[in-house]
Design goal:
By secondary structure, the protein is mainly α. The chain has three helices and no strands. The protein is 83% helix and 0% strand.
């Protein structure tokens, strides 16, 4: 990975961290509002992963049919993006289940 790509990833991570902190600071005192924001974010993430999967499938079918303008690298990148987004959603699900089980196993 080149230095430019690493710097871009780091800057994106910093921007996401700053956005998360600003949302956290704005909702401190609003205990009930945090869940709906998380739900919206989770729903958007699931929709994006689904869209990436559908796009990859459509590109794969178009390439198989021999449509003009659809090239193999484009199809491969779309398939990898769909795979990565699915893996990320799977990891989020696993972490949520683990957190739920930890909470359920806490003594009252």
């Amino acid at each position: 990975m080149s230095q430019v790509a690493i710097n871009q990833v780091l800057s994106q991570m910093r921007a996401l961290e700053a956005a998360a902190k600003s949302v956290e600071e704005s909702s401190i005192g609003n205990v009930g509002g945090g869940g709906s924001e998380f739900g919206k974010l989770l729903a958007e993430s699931i929709n994006k992963a689904s869209d990436a999967h559908h796009l990859a499938g459509d590109l794969k079918e178009a390439f198989t049919r021999g449509d003009e303008g659809v090239e193999l690298p484009q199809v491969m990148v779309a398939l990898q993006e769909a795979s990565i987004s699915f893996q990320a959603m799977t990891q989020v699900r696993n972490k949520l289940l683990s957190a739920y089980q930890d909470i359920m196993n806490m003594p009252v």
